[in-house]
């Protein structure tokens, strides 16, 4: 019986991979992960999809949030939503394979420039309707520090220049990249004994 289940699961996974074949080729060119990493990340995505077998071939945003929390120790639901919106360029209840791979690539292998672009997009996607006085004062101090062109707003150019001067400012509005320990622990799942 176990052999039948394994064969059946392999068939489902093969069909899923076939449906995504063109997309996989494009993703592999855009996000150059090792074959082992790509296959492992694809398998994780497939397993998440398999839980709901969403006819649109996407995983749910809630599943993506669970991965951020359980695998990368990123429990902030608000930022998880902002992360998905920034990666997908809009609100959606689903996470496409390309969005999944883009997130994993940035987390695992992204350059400083890629991480800056990503973090800025996450922060830019956030609504600034929070009425917390302490946060507003903090934001004012940060804007003054990072507003290099003195226009009253933080542009990507201001942000990237500030981060290059002081790398700790990369995630100044909240964690949107996993910590190194979480990334290392996640990568251990890909290593072969």
Note the main attributes of this structure:
mainly alpha; elongated; disordered N terminus; 2 strands; two-stranded antiparallel ribbon
Would you kindly provide a brief summary of this structure?
With 193 residues, this protein is mainly α. It contains 10 helices and 2 strands, in the order H-H-H-E-H-H-E-H-H-H-H-H.
Topology, element by element:
Elements: H1 2-19, H2 21-30, H3 35-52, E1 59-60, H4 61-72, H5 77-88, E2 94-95, H6 97-109, H7 112-125, H8 133-146, H9 156-165, H10 180-188
Antiparallel strand pairs: 1-2
Helix pairs in contact: 3-6, 4-5, 5-7, 7-9
Structure overview:
This protein is mainly alpha-helical and 193 residues long. Helix content is 67%, strand content 2%. It has 10 helices and 2 strands, in the order αααβααβααααα. The chain has a two-stranded antiparallel sheet with strand order 1-2. Helix 3 crosses helix 6 (97-109) and helix 4 crosses helix 5. The two termini are 28 Å apart. Mean pLDDT is 82; it is low at 1-5.
């Amino acid at each position: 019986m176990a052999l039948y289940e394994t064969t059946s699961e392999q068939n489902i996974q093969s069909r899923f991979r076939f449906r995504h074949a063109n997309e996989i080729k494009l993703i592999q060119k855009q996000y150059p992960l090792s074959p082992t990493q790509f296959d492992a990340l694809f398998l994780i995505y497939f397993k998440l999809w398999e839980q709901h077998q969403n006819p649109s071939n996407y995983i749910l945003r809630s599943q993506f949030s669970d991965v951020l929390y359980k695998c990368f120790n990123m429990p902030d639901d608000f930022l998880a939503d902002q992360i998905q919106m920034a990666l997908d360029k809009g609100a959606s209840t689903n996470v496409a394979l390309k969005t999944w791979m883009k997130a994993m690539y940035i987390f695992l292998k992204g350059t400083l420039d890629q991480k800056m672009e990503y973090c800025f997009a996450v922060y830019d996607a956030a609504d600034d309707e929070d009425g917390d006085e302490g946060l507003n004062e903090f934001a004012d101090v940060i804007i003054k520090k990072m507003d290099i062109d003195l226009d009253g707003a933080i542009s990507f150019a201001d942000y990237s220049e500030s981060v290059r001067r002081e790398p700790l400012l990369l995630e100044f509005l909240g964690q949107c990249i996993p910590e190194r320990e979480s990334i290392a622990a996640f990568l251990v799942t890909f290593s072969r004994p």
